[in-house]
Amino acid sequence: MARLKSEGPKKMASTLSKHSLQPSKMPRVKILGTGSFYPERIVNNHEISKKVDTSDEWITERTGIKQRRFSSPDGGEFPTDMARSASLTALKNAGLTPNDIDLIIFATFTPDHRLPSCATILQTKLGITNQCAALDIAAACSGFVYALSLANAMIKSGASQRTLIVGSEMLSRELNWYDRASCILFGDGCGAAVVGVNNDPTDTSDIISCTLAADGTGRKFMELEYGGTAYPLTAEIIDTPKRYMTMQGRELFKVAVRTLADISFSALKMAELTVDQIDWLIPHQANIRIIEATGERLGMPKEKVIVNIQEYGNTSAATVPAAMDGAISEGKIKRGDLLLLTAFGAGLTSGAAVIRY
Ligand code: COA
């Protein structure tokens, strides 16, 4: 069995610490198939401006977002429902059936329920009967890249052959309508990927490097303190702003740009590649200005950056896999292309991956 090598915590220029896997001497890991799902209901900026004091012009100019999708509150489009659809597409594209999966990693901070996990619910919804391991992870908007990195490690260590990874969010339930700077940003959606061992010696597909980081001192930039064990939801706060997430947008903006670029450079360095070798940058879709500034810092031409924020807004853990799936479906991303995935979120968490698709 291949051994995992860890570089261990290491000081980066940005003061980020990182836990990394070295890619050499390990089996290759391939993205076998991807899928995505967005709820039916389109909510444009005009509709948002009927709820809060804002305008289509302001939102478009400041964020690049024109519309987003909201799940039906009546059911059928909850995170595990969206995940079921996206996963079935990913499995179909991989030429696999649900019982071929031996591990499910589900990234979300808007789970259907507090118990049980979304991953176990998804297992049942997919009709998986092999009792594969299933877990949720909470890394906010970096969730999918975290899940990908964990899957890569599990497969490279021999612990999994084929892992289903999902980022699925129903942020419309958590929107802070008391805060016009944050409620305009988010939407609902899901992206999924099946990753597995690549045994074909002629096939170069691989997850070449993954870098994860977290800086807990940035907690105050985005948090939702209530509803957990420290501050349970009580009758007094249920209809107050305290019940919702708070965000320091301007500060987050600056950290996001710096971090997305730093963590990307770190993943590139580990992969022993340079930006000009990358075919596609798939960044977390938080704000078009963050995406553009990150691209500029990295020196990535605009036409190589996958952007869909105008249509879907920020869907947290779902942005990266859904944008990747969209670009694959459109025929932009082709087998053999080099991809750079980069994400950033509450925590503050961040992660990047270099992939030979
Ligand atoms: N409509 C109209 N005006 C708004 C507004 C809205 N929806 N939201 C804020 N404003 C106003 C502010 O009140 C402020 O007015 P003032 O100058 O009179 O005080 C003005 O616009 C500028 O606010 P500011 O916060 O400086 O705007 P900004 O250019 O930084 O844009 C964000 C705000 C939230 C869009 C931007 O900071 C951002 O995207 N940050 C990152 C957030 C993020 O990505 N979060 C998720 C992380 S994964």
Structure, briefly:
This protein folds into two domains: 29-198, Thiolase/Chalcone synthase (Peroxisomal Thiolase, Chain A, domain 1); 204-356, Thiolase/Chalcone synthase (Peroxisomal Thiolase, Chain A, domain 1, 3-Layer(aba) Sandwich).
What structural keywords apply?
357 residues; alpha+beta; Peroxisomal Thiolase, Chain A, domain 1; 2 domains; five-stranded mixed sheet; 10 helices; 14 strands; 23% strand; disordered N terminus; binds coenzyme A
Strand content: 15-25%
**Structural class estimated from helices and strands:** alpha+beta
What's the number of helices?
Answer: 10
The CATH architecture of the largest domain can be named as 3-Layer(aba) Sandwich
CATH superfamily of the largest domain: Thiolase/Chalcone synthase
CATH topology of the largest domain: Peroxisomal Thiolase, Chain A, domain 1
Please provide a written account of the structure.
The chain is α+β, with helices and mostly antiparallel strands and 357 residues long. It has two domains: 29-198, Peroxisomal Thiolase, Chain A, domain 1, CATH 3.40.47.10; 204-356, Peroxisomal Thiolase, Chain A, domain 1 (3-Layer(aba) Sandwich), CATH 3.40.47. Helices cover 29% and strands 23% of the residues. The chain contains ten helices and 14 strands. The chain has helices at 45-48, 56-63, 79-94, 118-125, 143-156, 180-183, 249-271, 288-298, 309-312, 319-329; strands spanning 19-20, 28-37, 41-44, 67-70, 103-107, 133-137, 162-170, 188-198, 206-214, 222-223, 246-247, 280-283, 338-345, 349-356. The strands form four sheets. It has a five-stranded mixed β-sheet, sandwiched between helices. Strand 5, helix 4 (118-125) and strand 6 (133-137) form a beta-alpha-beta unit. Helix 3 packs across helix 4. The longest helix has 23 residues, at 249-271. Mean pLDDT is 93; it is low at 1-20. The structure holds coenzyme A. Coenzyme A (COA) binds at residues 54, 58, 62-63, 141, 180-181, 184-185, 222, 247, 249-250, 252-253, 256, 286-287, 314, 344-345.
